[in-house]
Every structure is written in C-alpha cells, then in structure tokens.
Amino acid sequence: MKLLxxxxxxxxxxxxxxxxxxxxxxxxxxxxxLLTQNGQQRVNEIATALLPANPTEFIANGDxxxxxxxEAIAFALENxxxxxxxxxxxxxxxxxxxxxxxxxxxxxLNYKNHILEMKRDLPVHPVIFAKFATxxxxxxxxxxxxxxxxxxxxxxxxxxxxxxxxxxxxxxENALDYVFGYTVANDITARDMQKRTxxxxxxxxxxxxxxxxxxxxTKDEIKNPHSLDISLTVNEEVxxxxxxxxxxxxxxxxxxxxxxxxxLEPGDIVxxxxxxxxxEAQNKFLQHGDKVRVxxxxxxxxxxxxxEVTES
Length: 312
Description:
This protein is of the alpha+beta class. It is built from nine helices and 19 strands. The strands form three sheets. Strands 1, 2, 3, 4, 5, 6, 7, 8, 11, 12, 14 and 17 form a twelve-stranded mixed sheet that branches. The chain has a five-stranded mixed sheet with strand order 9-19-18-15-16, with no helix packed on it. Helix 1 (27-37) packs antiparallel against helix 2 and helix 1 (27-37) crosses helix 4. The longest helix is centred in the first third of the chain and has 17 residues, at 62-78.
C-alpha cells in the first residue's frame, strides 16, 4: 500500500492511497460509500474513527485500519463510475505522507563515505538529533531560501522509516515488526547555522527543510530496506549515489537503539542518514532556482525547488 496526503480546492491535506501511477482513492470516503450501500447507520462516525483522514492516526489504528482500507478501496474501484472517493493526481495537491508526527528523529554520520568526507571518526553509537514537524514539506514543494539567514544551504538524500506501533526496548530481531513503512527524505541543512554551536538543531530544522514522499510505502512492499538504491541530483547533476546496504547502523539497529532511549510511537519518523556527496564536501551549496531530486528504488522520487525569499 502506498500512502500519501492530498488536497482539493485548498482544503486541509487528508489521507489518500495511491493505487496506480495516477489514481488516488480516499479510504475514508470510500468506506462511507461502502457502509452506506450496506445500510449501516452513523457511517460518518464509523469511517472517521476507523479510517481517519490524518495519516498518523490511521497508522495508529494498525492492521484493522489497513485491512478495512483495502476493502473500501476495492469497493470504490469496482464502482468507479459513481464513486466520489477517486481522484487523479493532476487534479489535486500532494502533501507529505505523514504530517504531524510526535517525533522526528534523525541519524547523522551513518554512511562511511559521508563520515570520511566530513572528516569525522566512525561513531560507536548512532549520532542522533531532531527536526520539528514544521520542517515537513510535500514532495514537490518550494523551499524558501533566506540568504540573510544562511549562505550554505545543503542537501542530504535519506531513507526514512515510519513507526507503526508503540514499542520500548525492542530487540534487533523484532525491529521490523514495529516499522510501518518507508519514504524518501531530503534533510535540507543550513551548514553555517549547524556549526554555530555544538548542537546541530538550529541548522537542521528550518521550516520546510524536510521534504518527504512521494508516498509512504508499507513494509510488505519493501522486502529488504537494506538493498535500496539512493541518489540525489541538483539540476540533473548527480551529487549522491549509493545503496542502503552501506548504512553503518541499519534499520534494525536504529529501532533497537532508539527504543532503548525513548518510547517509539505510531507515526514517528526516523531519518537514517545520508551517503557521501553532500554540498559542503564539494563547496557546492544550493542557490535560487536549483532543483533537488532525491530518488530511492521501490519508493519513488521527490523534487524540491529552491526559491529565494525576501524579508518584508
């Protein structure tokens, strides 16, 4: 299953399921239609509770929500001529597949070639930091560059995973049971702000500095998260190219490690780190008009346009 969020007529973003390259089904709307045909009462309340429009709440409802969504989607597609739950991508705005998670945990220095280019020692434990939910942006959104704030805007292609159920002290061998799915991320970073203090946060969590998408692919469709090609281009020039097999601390390790520190909750996003080739290592920072594309095999691609903004 491929989750996303969509909006029509400037309405708030809500959960949709991408069923083919261009077709989106709203599972809540589809379930209302299914319940209505079956003569069920209080259909809006039931559908809203079981298949909420907020993707974090949908994820928290677990396997029952996924199974029900599959049934509702099948019903909508079988009745496509009359269903109001079906949309085409070109007719809607696409947002990030997760909107307001409780936590966004990022891992730094997790590919050997990136560690070497940053002139750091190999970490013994994962290096972690946070972003805030206001950093989340859609897969094709514009990033507002304020050059008075940063002169060294950088990119970081990353595989992100989303937690599917609550867990604490999760063992390595059971870690993937707690993962809901995977998505593409770009950890846009203001390097000059990052290095102003020993804490990285101020350079890491600018508004709209975490483009995500284009979909959240459930783990059943990603058999091995540690064999995915990952690449990043700036204006079609390849800057980063690697495979998640190169992760120093893999997804299992990160779930085990992080759950020993904090309780992981449904919808939490974990960024797994970036491979070598970042702009700072090449003295190539992002400028007005740049188009940054991140692609991961089995998931898809996101593209962010950098646009200079002026202070009013």
